[in-house]
């Protein structure tokens, strides 16, 4: 198709939409055939003016019309692709509300420890890997000590503190990342390369687990992880720019491929470096980014001050990339005892967790964000971390009274003091949550913070929604599987692996859970005008599911498969 013809068709499509010949297109033959029509199924549009439909028409990358099969039939021309979904369910493409794209892809390039059920199993896996590549770094991701069948024989605070890893790989440096991303285990060789000794102090915002005699036990929390990560980075210093570019591209490719196979059309990247954003731009210009990205920049304040204005992007190219948010970390994670709490942990009475990036640093970042018209997104899991974040937001909002509707976000908002729950709605702060964290963490949350705190403020989606707060959903991939269906199921059931339910009064309805994964995520990114619902004029991002997750019996929801993932009117994944 020539550029002139394509432009002519696009103009006609826009005129159709403006003239209102879409939904109510209703019997009037479309003057220009659609590129694709989806017919023969149930469509949950998330458009309040027409919540249900049977079919829709797509022109270029945009939805032209939504209606009954009869309404859409006139849009079918000789070259129109007709996709008959045979009674299945079409919904707006899932929007991953909080994940880590490059980290997700890189996790697929290292040892998968997510299924490990003991420390011994992990040590054996590392030994096998080390034997294949003597001297090389052994990297792994996804272990969680609370998910092991039994505690290690030698443990400190529940973490392995023996020398088994060093004996299994004496000549290979080993770095194994906790599933939360807020702790790692290193062996003796890795600590040697990092220069970590008994006299190494805990860095600000981090902690080194130690034996009673002060020697490092090999477990590093939050900022302390950088000691080992920097040693690993030094080992990579000899790579050429081409090799580094290839590794990043491969990580993105693997992550995007998995997202598409699970029905995700947009991904909110929750900590992108400038280097990663530069790559995203290249991929978009090369037409080689299969999903849409919305990115939060995570850099130090000096770098932010120097670069924010030139990195701001909104709907870059074909609405494939937006960069308009800053990310900061107030605390760590509950699983690592580094979530910042108002009161000590029930199972670690001497600790209230960690403040990872100082409140002063985050306040400065907040002022940079508002000055440059960026959203601020702060990782806050513990109740103290959430309170401090809300305090900073309130301070900066009061300094800028003319600035309204900023939609700043708290990422996770997992554990809240009852006094702070109403503040989200009052301040217009979005609770960017992950339903699957509730069901994944639920078996050990009460051990960490006690029954009273768990009931009052742990994963309290409904309490937040009842105050008027916007609650979104995501998976924090690779912390959890990026798949939306298990996450949706977690939102509507809060069912734990043993069949019990974690405070069921906080469950979402199915309609609320779908909205949290579509329109609410779009709203949280200032993208509700172009995505999040299936409505004429919006992007043709559609996910087709094998079962109607809004109506099938609850226990059938987890068996639902993704059949089609459509981005901008193009089928990017076809399942069976």
Q: Taking strands numbered 1, 2, ... along the chain, how are they ordered across the largest sheet?
A: 8-17-18-20-21-22-23-24
Helix content percent band: 25-40%
CA(first)-CA(last) distance? 32 Å
Radius of gyration based on Cα positions:
24 Å
Tell me, what's the shape? globular
Runs with pLDDT <50, length 5+?
Answer: 1-27
Q: Report the mean per-residue pLDDT as an integer.
A: 94
Strand content: 15-25%
Derived structural class: alpha/beta
Main beta-sheet annotation: 8 strands, parallel
Instruction: List the total number of helices.
Output: 19
Number of strands: 27
Notable traits:
single chain; 35% helix; 576 residues; disordered N terminus; 19 helices; alpha/beta; six-stranded mixed sheet
Question: How would you describe this structure to a colleague?
Answer:
With 576 residues, the protein is α/β, with parallel strands linked by helices. The strands form 5 sheets. The chain has an 8-stranded parallel sheet. α15 runs parallel beside α17 (484-493). The two termini are 32 Å apart.
